Amino acid sequence: MAGCSASPSVWRQVYARSSGVKPDIVAELRAIADPAAVQYIPVLLLADTDDYAKAQQGLADVFDDPQVTDLRVYAIGDGAAMSGLLLAGCRTTGETTLLISLLD
């Protein structure tokens, strides 16, 4: 999937869902141990808000869908002021869903 593997050089892949893994985006994100990414996961999951369950269900609805055949997570940023995570889910239909969470 060229669309999912193409990324700017300042981005670094921190997770890729292996084939045969039961999709569970919330657990997969929580399992990421990369120091550059781990600090942004609670923000992405809205862990410190009253809406965390709704946010996590929304992530599951999108990224645990059986049509998502390629899921990758990247640590992203400009090397200075902004940094965060990008989730990319490629589907069997050829569509790609991106979720970008940036902090400055």
SSE-based structural type? alpha+beta
Quaternary arrangement of the chains shown?
Answer: single chain
Low-confidence stretches: none
Strand content: 25-35%
Total helices: the number is: 5
Helix fraction? Answer: 25-40%
How can the largest sheet be summarized? 4 strands, antiparallel
Mean pLDDT: 88
Number of domain modules: 1
Radius of gyration, taken over Cα atoms and rounded to an integer in Å: 13 Å
Shape: globular
Strand order of the largest sheet: 1-2-3-4
Describe what this molecule looks like in 3D.
- The protein is built from five helices and four strands, in the order H-E-H-H-H-H-E-E-E.
- Helices cover 30% and strands 31% of the residues.
- With 104 residues, it is α+β, with helices and mostly antiparallel strands.
- The radius of gyration is 13 Å and the shape is globular.
- The mean pLDDT is 88.
- It has helices at 2-5, 25-31, 35-38, 41-44, 52-63; strands spanning 12-16, 68-77, 83-91, 96-103.
- Strands 1-2-3-4 form a four-stranded antiparallel sheet.
Ordered list of secondary-structure elements with their pairings:
Elements: H1 2-5, E1 12-16, H2 25-31, H3 35-38, H4 41-44, H5 52-63, E2 68-77, E3 83-91, E4 96-103
Summary keywords:
104 residues; alpha+beta; four-stranded antiparallel beta sheet; 5 helices; 30% helix; 31% strand; globular
What can be said about this structure in brief?
The chain is an alpha+beta fold and 104 residues long. The chain has 5 helices and 4 strands; from the N terminus they run αβααααβββ.
